[in-house]
Amino acid sequence: MGLNREHELHGRRRGRNLGVAVALGAFVLIVFGITIAKLSNGQMIEGFDHALRPSLLPQEEAR
Fold this sequence. Notes:
mainly alpha
């Protein structure tokens, strides 16, 4: 003999879980979109790793 009827609490939990899933999915899409926008800019993205690179030095003016 199985339990077939759902309690009202299960319906509310399902609704909250769907809300959390939608919010999490939206957050992931926003982060993904920002990442793609930054990477598609065409410039090199260099992190600061305590190493001197010529591309990080100020450009000297030609005289």
